[in-house]
Design a protein that fits this description.
The chain is mainly alpha-helical. The protein is built from 3 helices and no strands. 68% of the residues lie in helices and 0% in strands.
């Protein structure tokens, strides 16, 4: 709910890649709240999925198209 609310509020000002980052944050918030509420527990798949989401977000943020440097 938090991630979707933030996205709805700021989507017009966000670049598409940043909006995608906010969208992928929703499962992270859901899993965190589920663990805090005692409805879920931390296991290997949860850690793997969280790692994949983190890796995707970092790659979307930092591996954008960069200007090419001319090689002599």
């Amino acid at each position: 709910m938090i991630a979707v609310s933030v996205l709805n509020r700021w989507q017009k000002e966000l670049a598409p890649s940043r909006a995608a980052i906010v969208y992928t944050a929703e499962p992270v918030f859901a899993a965190t709240i589920s663990i805090i509420a005692g409805r879920d527990h931390v296991n290997g798949w949860l850690i793997f999925g969280a790692g994949m989401i983190l890796l995707a977000n970092l790659s979307a943020e930092f591996l954008r198209k960069r200007p090419r440097i001319a090689m002599p």
